Amino acid sequence: MAPFSSTAELHAYQQALVERRDPDRTVIAVCYGTGCKASGATELIDALKKAVQEAGCSDRVSVMPTGCHGFCEGAPLVVVHPRRILYTKVKPRHAADIVNKTALAGEVIEPLLFVDPDTGNKVVHEGELPFYAHQHRLLLGRHSTTNPEEIDDYLANGGYGAWARILDEQIAPEAIIELIKKSGLRGRGGGGFPAGRKWDSCRNAPGEVHYVICNADEGDPGAFMDESVLEGNPHSVIEGMIIGAYAIGFPHSRTEGYVYIRHEYPLARHRLAIALDQAREKGLLGDNILGSGLSFDITVNRGGGAFVCGESTALMASIEGFPGEPRAKHIHTVVSGLYGMPTNLNNVETWANVPVILNMGVQAYRAIGTEHSKGTKIFSLVGKVNNTGLVEVPMGMTLKDIIFQVGGGIRNGKRFKAVQTGGPSGGCIPASLIDLPVDFDRLDEVGSMMGSGGMIVMDETTCMVEVARYFLNFLRSESCGKCSTCREGIARMYDIVEGITRGEGKPGDVELLEELAEVVREASLCALGTTAPNPVLSTIRYFAEEYRAHIEEKRCPAKQCKALITYRIIEDRCTGCTACAKICPTDAITGVKDQVHLIHQEKCIQCGSCYEVCPVDAISVE
Amino acid sequence: MLTFTIDGQTVQAEEGQNLLEVALAHGFDIPTLCYHPSVSAYGACRLCLVEVTQRGRSRITTSCNYPALPGISVVTRNDRIDRLRRLVMELILCRDPGNPQLQAMADRLGVDRTRLRFASRQDGCILCGLCERICRESIGADAISFVGRGHERRLATPFDEPSESCVGCLACAMVCPTQVIEFTQDADTRTIWKRTFTLVKCKECGAVLGTPEELALFQRKTGLDASYFDTCDACRKKQTATAFAAVTWGGQRP
Ligand SMILES: Cc1cc2nc3c(=O)[nH]c(=O)nc-3n(C[C@H](O)[C@H](O)[C@H](O)COP(=O)(O)O)c2cc1C
Ligand code: FES
Fold first, then answer.
1. Ligand 2 atom at shortest distance from the alpha carbon of B62
2. ipTM, 2 dp
3. Which of A255, A280, A461, A595 has the most CB atoms around it within 10 Å of its CB?
4. Interaxial angle between packed helices A161-168 and A234-249, expressed in degrees from 0 to 180 and rounded to the nearest 10
């Protein structure tokens, strides 16, 4: 097919697609996101394809790997269209039944349905899952119905329509910037900078090329928001970038696009490459796109493999082939960025919001969220919460609603203690602030941040000093090492906190940590350093008592710091079953069968194996 | 020319100058460990902190990479800056508390010791990157570079092997603010970064001129005749003076 040379041709094609498509066709959508892949989605897809072959129904039933649906707790997930019957924790051995019973005979397979733990009810349809019901899935909502490797799926759903409308209605680039400003869209990559203002500054900066970059480096451990958007709906990002290029560089400049993508994301890269090829084939990228006069294409760049490469100036240095090291931003990258040219960098999720905003209209978009944070935000909800996964909620939803309604509460009936937001340099928010509405400014106010949307839920068994140590350890290795405050400062804060977890804390340590935090925050070169003290400062602020117990009483209240806990056998409970003595890796437990056993403290390494294995709960931790 | 103030005093600067060079030129005292006027500013040591107020907003920033801008006001010292500089110094001092150059800077800033645990590698290198920049930007040899990240960062030749592009010029060792880049030299050879060079000597007096690689590089860069590098400065001067005298007075001093 020849590339579209006008919006009329695009509309005609879309019309024909819709007419040709049978809305009732049977499609078995298998989530192929991070969680489901780890739980065997690859084997499941193979089994389903084989089952379709064996049933000889490949003309009526297709198997479609999709991007992440979000409900990782139920991985791997299967949704059978058109009825959107949802199956969770599906194994390859279920494949034949799904094809023969559900896809061909419309029968629901009861044992594969999700059971709502609150009501005991079985959930049949995807939309009825409580996990999705409390979300607002502007970006993720299409993932279970879209084949990300098929541009026709995006086009049939009105894809590239926002871009076509701009051309049909001859909306000027400046007017697009105004719309984005009015929408209140703020960058989703961490800083929350107003996207419209950034576009405006970039447009107004002189230069023969204006670069438009998508930041898909996503280096936060455990985060997969951007990965999921690229795997699930790559065209939404491409459409956003085309609109961005038009708004920023047309007609006064040349425009070029880049997607800088984390090197551990082969599937996202693969799907993006397919999407880019298909967009080029259709004339949606390249010279004189749809006859608009805009020429724009996108190059994919593989990330440098370091957390700091996601920082804007480091990212640009890395694209240029230099080491991924940040530089001072006294001259902004919108003025002098990639190759010294005006450069507009936005996060994946920011770009994906652009067509959504233009499609739904600025008014409707502004109605979602809080006064200064509009729209939705995707979070990766992990940790001690029942429903782990990818959630998209309106800005301003309270922590409580996210954790207890969407997330289904704390695992094993434990007590909620804190939630860490914002990635490794975010902060810990205590249970007392559970009613906090989550938006950019409120998270900053309490000493944390939005970051890219990590959310780690912690229960009473989490030691907050250990949490601070964990993140400092990550940051001291991921600091590029260029400036002395970030490199030495984080390393020295780590030393102190690590000492505290080992029972070597001294009076004055907390004050020294606060002093170091100030210099690291105030004097570091890039935002990695200036935010790095957050994990320490927020835990000191809200959990000072835990630091005190570690330092003064050499006691870990959460009973996690090995150097500060002792395992003992409760004599009147021990039955002498010998299980503990058998499992102890250091032979620290002795005793005769059927008699009370003893832990020799000098040999004990506090591994906790005895505690885990004891059938009668006769081991205490202090 | 643009105008702004430093500690209340009005100063003028060229566009493109940084705050540090303007301040130093006007006699203000700002401590630095990673700055050298002949290479680009890098912003690694963080000692050159100042407070800049622009359009009513104040911030602490390093002065070596902050551009001189019209109308800003710069404060080079106050309690906050002093306190932050002392903390920066404590952090840098962890890298080698015994290093005399670092101790001298610490004295100057009023830091008598660091309260922090020392870094695991105490080789005196503070990773200021001056050696790397002088080698790459001024000499053009690009023989050393940073390797590793975070607290494991260090400077090295490629694969820690003797560098092929090193010309043995010693510029790195000379510029090192802590004087820890080791080299040795005897009558005929010079060794640096594990590579040994034979030395070229003045044809007249036998004084050491440098390594052949170094002289070749300078010849290439300056376009001077190769014979220029046969003799040392002093002998060349003497030769010139003799030749000059021959022309002027026919070789006979009056
Ligand atoms: C250490 C560090 C790592 C970062 N990593 C990312 C990242 O992985 N993805 C991202 O979008 N932004 C990252 N950022 C933020 C970027 O510098 C930049 O602000 C962002 O990409 C701009 O896009 P936005 O305005 O759409 O948020 C990082 C910043 C720092 C300081
Ligand atoms: S002299 Fe400015 S940071 Fe070192």
1. 2
2. 0.90
3. A255
4. 30
